[in-house]
Specification:
The chain has 314 residues and is an alpha/beta fold. It folds into two domains: 116 residues, Alpha-Beta Plaits, CATH 3.30.70; 191 residues, Vaccinia Virus protein VP39 (Rossmann fold), CATH 3.40.50.150. Helix content is 29%, strand content 30%. The strands form three sheets. A seven-stranded mixed beta sheet has the order 10-9-8-11-12-14-13, with helices on both faces. Strands 2-3-1-4 form a four-stranded antiparallel beta sheet. About 4% of the residues have low confidence.
């Protein structure tokens, strides 16, 4: 079967919305070529990404690739993607060059090629994320290893926004808390929380592909007795309360979510928000404070910010 590879030259800020646009357009798999992975200096003893070649990455910006089947309505799909990319500008998302290029590939060429971009990474003091197809031996007895198979869902767990979230969870999880993961993607944050000691996690995502991927990864990591995965839009119609809520999503989505977070968090509960580009951080902080959440720490990595906030008891 023939497929069209659509490549979008963009920025780190736009990775998640661009990948989402491709998924919603019917892309079977998304590849992210981000040269930041080659340049990153991990803090302290955090590990490396192994065996990546600079030849596989653009010199600047980020390339997000999707794969669309060659059909009679392919041209209309491409135009729809371009229209939705332009709409991102309305949300002040920097698209960078924003160029779109097309090429034809055969299924066997892309089905496994993306795996070369995904290697074991130690992302925090305790946690290493490794793909299922890589052999990895823990460096110490207390190292927590998370195995992931992203499949067609976006998210390998090594993007700065995810790493910030994981480091935030390490700071606040004491054990036996209940947690909700909003926009769980492949489930990496839910799995990390389970292995860090929370008693229960409700993992939510609107994307059916992400939900199925998260379910697979939860079982792969043997935490299905702790993590429940459900298809859901943000916190809509969620009645249960939680001690911790994490959301690794875009700033504009977090701004819409804060009222729900305030209602759903238990008193003294913790909200960790990530996926926030630095120039939107103050806007998010102000919205949290308006609903009674006190910001207790901000974590930064390059242009990304994660915010740890606490619900103040009334």
């Amino acid at each position: 079967m023939k497929w069209t590879e659509i490549s979008i030259h963009t920025t780190q800020e736009a990775i998640e919305p661009v990948a989402n646009i491709l998924h919603e357009a019917g892309a079977s798999g998304v590849v992210i070529e981000d040269p930041e992975l080659l340049q990153r200096e991990w803090e302290d003893k955090f590990g490396e990404i192994y065996q990546l070649s600079p030849e596989d990455f653009p010199e600047e910006g980020v390339i997000v690739k999707g794969y669309l089947p060659v059909t009679s309505f392919l041209a209309e799909t491409i135009e729809e993607i371009k229209d939705r990319l332009n709409q991102l500008l309305l949300y002040d998302i920097d698209l960078g060059l924003g160029t779109v290029t097309l090429s034809e590939v055969h299924e066997h060429e892309w089905a496994t090629a993306w795996k070369k971009y995904y290697k074991p990474v130690q992302v925090s003091n305790k946690i290493t994320i490794t793909p299922t197809w890589e052999e990895y031996q823990p460096l110490s007895s207390d190292e927590i290893v998370i195995e992931l198979d992203p499949g067609m869902a976006f998210g390998t767990g090594t993007h700065p926004t995810t790493v910030l979230c994981i480091r935030g969870m390490e700071k606040v999880i004491r054990g036996n808390e209940s947690m909700i993961d909003v926009g769980c993607g492949t489930g990496v944050l839910s799995i990390a929380a389970a292995k860090l000691g929370v008693s229960s996690v409700l993992a939510l995502d609107l994307d059916e592909v992400a939900v199925e991927s998260a379910k697979i990864n939860v079982k792969l990591n043997q935490v299905q007795h702790i993590v429940k995965v459900k298809q859901n839009n943000l916190l809509d119609y969620i009645s249960e309360k939680a001690d911790i809520i994490v959301a690794n999503i875009l700033a504009e989505v977090i701004l819409r979510l804060v009222d729900q977070v305030s209602y759903t968090l238990n008193d003294e509960g913790i909200f960790i928000a990530s996926g926030i580009i630095s120039n939107r951080a103050q806007e998010v902080i102000s919205s949290l404070e308006k609903v009674g959440l006190e910001v207790i720490e901000t974590l930064k990595d390059e242009d990304w910010v994660a915010i740890i906030a606490k619900k103040v008891s009334k």
